[in-house]
Amino acid sequence: MEGLIISNKNVNSFDEIAVTIAVAEGEIIHATSVEDSMIELKELVQAAGAEVKAEITLHQKIDEDYYLDKEALDYLMTEIKNLDVNMLVFIDELTGMQIKNLEDLTGKKIVDRTMLLLDILSTRSNRRETKLEIEKAQLRYRLTRLEGFQGIYKYGNGICVNNPNGRRLLTDEEKIREKLDSLEVELAITVKNRFVQRSKKVGNELPLVAFIGYTNSGKSSIMNKLLELDPDHTEESAVIVKDKMLSTLDMSLRKSTLPNGKEYLLVDTVGFVSDLPGIMRAAFRSTFEELSYADLILTVYDASSYDLDIQKNIMDYTMQRIGITKKKNISILNKVDKIENIPESTDGKIYVSAKTGYNFDHLINVIEQTLFENEEEVTLLIPYSKFDIFNEIKEKKVIEIEDFTLNDIGVELNIVLNNDEFEKYKNFIK
What we know:
Low-confidence stretches: none
CATH topology of the largest domain: Rossmann fold
Binding site for GTP: 213-220, 268-271, 334-337, 353-355
CATH architecture of the largest domain: 3-Layer(aba) Sandwich
Number of domains: 3
Number of helices: 14
Radius of gyration: 26 Å
Pfam families: GTP-bdg_N (PF13167), MMR_HSR1 (PF01926)
Mean pLDDT: 84
Keywords: GTP-binding, Magnesium, Metal-binding, Nucleotide-binding
CATH superfamily of the largest domain: GTPase HflX, N-terminal domain
Strand order of the largest sheet: 9-10-8-11-12-13
Helix content: 25-40%
Largest sheet: 6 strands, mixed
Structural class: alpha/beta
Protein name: GTP-binding protein HflX
Number of strands: 16
CATH class of the largest domain: Alpha Beta
Cofactor: Mg(2+)
């Protein structure tokens, strides 16, 4: 049997110290290798504010009652007596019976990967809708595992105890069902308001560029570089950059301007992790909907990461699951300042450094070409009897006084149209 791998790191300053545990029946867990899944799990524990003292991976079948078989349990019990740990974190989703049995046996807080992810997201959210969705996911997850939440979770503190508003999560079935009903009503109102706001954005008809990528790949840093091109840019309009997993949860929507003078919208979305649990997808509903509206998706990777291929597999898998594989997409490999030999870029795969600004001219040029490749500059002659057409165009586009002249027949307007607009106004082309 594989032994416990104990870290030499000083963890005395942490309130919660964990052992991470995995049972692997094969070579793959959560769409990646067992080793890489355990590295990610450790990073998630750290993102939640705790630290990992030891880890163990066991190649055996999962036990229905305890997750680990008796031999592994006996070994684990002996080893953790000598470690100052108070939390056991499991890479797989546990049943309520497994959580209860493990807590009763070890006296430690029992956490699984999905609970951990939900807890991290609950501390990152600021938008009302996101908070409601996360609390809903937390309660739905608990509802099917209630017997596992009647001990430490009922009276203890720390990770996986509170909702996004800092209040203790419910542990009583009747109260959970009542709260879920209440959350559904609040969400219905909030989502309706968001659709109203979205319809106003669509009415502006500015192209939308959306960032996605593996967590901590530098999406926000790249977005800030692009925002700096806008003549109205200020420090206040920049998005917050944090060097940790899942630091971006709430979407950041900003307007910017390209060197060709065209305005567009940029949105930074949540960073992804491997094999996003199904119960969490609803919490990202607004993010996924924003991606569905995007005219261009920028998928960001960490070019310096040892697991670049894994990042790509995760993102391909995620984009397929949420149905955006047919969107225009540019792959951006960030952090090339950390690598020695930088590969040559193409229009679909661009190597950059948000830190140094390396190759941003290429990226900006490709964004311009991609967003406005189907546009054509034309002159429209709109009769005064059809002046409502001129007003319609003016509501959707920025028209300067030098763009049009008045003559005896009507308004002569120089304008750039996309394919749909060209088809709509072709009868007025001079």
